[in-house]
């Protein structure tokens, strides 16, 4: 296992190093000033200062809370609704126009409205996150449930399986790889949702920090610090989803 | 193995498992039709009457689309007939999951994320039998089909023959008095298939139960069955019933036996008489 893991770790590190070198080269070769494109070490230094001065923490914590709660609530609701959509053509007929319409309206346009309706607190921002993660996960769940092998369904029927047995023992496990595809898309969208929600009205969050750095302080390196943290959040949560997926969907 | 089987029999309802028993099945004037895309109804079975005596092996043979598998699904309770009655043990209509029917399909239909033993134990899990008993009985069933060492293997790592053995173990794990086999060996190569036939015969001799074997192979039918029922082309009806009074165990090289050869010929002639219309016109046009 270690022998297989080492080259992969090296590949990740090499690609990170290559990215940083390319970034540095662009800043050096073009001579772009730091307030337009800061060099990687400038951003790193600004990041350390932001941590030391403590201005980063409340923003990071707020965004983390939105992503975790929004993704959790959105994914749970999406799996439940996706299951209903997958099991019943009637439910699909009745609900899917609303689901598609809600997805087609840009979340950017909905966020301010939700901010008004839900009192501009954490709940409103969690809701925006949940909404944006809902669609891919619900659709993936529906598709996954529908693609259950009909021969296995007949087998379970021949063994007298109840509807609950069929869902629990066959359809959900069979749909898991597809559901995880949706979860992977959803978890990265949760970060997008958090920033959109913060821009619609919030006093803390990495999205707010970007606005402060941009408009208040003209502190481009600090903007980059916020962007890097957003990327890190996305990577970490995506990695967590993949880890859970490997545990659950191994040995197929 | 015999003592283990006897131990288990004593713990079970005697009626279902007494040696030489099995469940008698009667089909009376069963008709089944399916809706087609054009809105018409395709008649798969028409007034099919069939008796499976308790503890006997009946082979159901016939041209493609004659409704062999449909008849099997009706007996398994997976399909409700339009008309007619199905009786298991004289009265009760079959009900999936009541433990009376073991079913083997053409494909193994193993659940890919469960180990072999968990696949075999699935009928018991669905019958809400506790994990300890489940494991013990599944292990015993795997032993009966010669798969004891493959208990923890995933289905994808089983060969086609092993996977079908696991499917047979799963059908036998609940000790059903009735075993329905839907072309169970047709996806296997000839040698594996012959070995399988031999083992199935031995399993049956060890513990006779009522067996319905749907097959395309006349020699397989002659080797395994007490009676061969030839169905007509769609809609399926009984064209002929051929008794097979050969001593058991019957060897692989049964074709050399004149009595077996005569039975094969009789079945083949009956099959030739029930060829689908399109095939008859094709062969005659070619002459």
How is this structure best summarized?
With 252 residues, chain A is mostly helical. In chain A, 85% of the residues lie in helices and 0% in strands. In chain A, helix 3 runs parallel beside helix 6 (122-146), helix 3 runs antiparallel to helix 8 and helix 9 (206-216) packs antiparallel against helix 10 (220-249).
Descriptive overview:
By secondary structure, chain A is mainly alpha-helical. Chain A contains ten helices and no strands. Chain A is globular, with a radius of gyration of 22 Å. Chain B has a single domain (2-100, 176-286), classed as P-loop containing nucleotide triphosphate hydrolases (Rossmann fold, 3-Layer(aba) Sandwich), CATH 3.40.50. Chain B has a six-stranded mixed sheet with strand order 5-6-7-3-8-9, sandwiched between helices. In chain B, strand 8 and strand 9 form a beta hairpin. The model of chain B is unreliable at 1-20 (pLDDT under 50). At the A-B interface, helix 7 and helix 8 of A face helix 4 of B.
CATH superfamily membership of chain B, which one?
A: P-loop containing nucleotide triphosphate hydrolases
Count structural domains of chain B: 1
Helical fraction of chain A equals over 70%
CA-based gyration radius of chain B:
19 Å
Give the low-confidence spans of chain B: 1-20
SS elements, strand count of chain B: 9
Order of helices and strands of chain A: HHHHHHHHHH
Number of strands of chain A: 0
Q: pLDDT under 50 segments of chain A (min length 5)?
A: none
**Tally of domains of chain A:** 1
Question: What can be said about the biggest beta sheet of chain B?
Answer: 6 strands, mixed
| Order of the strands making up the biggest sheet of chain B | 5-6-7-3-8-9
**Which fold does the CATH topology of chain B refer to?**
Rossmann fold
Order of helices and strands of chain B: HHEEEHEEHHHEHEHEEHH
Number of helices of chain A: 10
Give the name of the CATH architecture of chain A. Orthogonal Bundle
CA-based shape of chain A = globular
Percent strand of chain A equals: under 5%
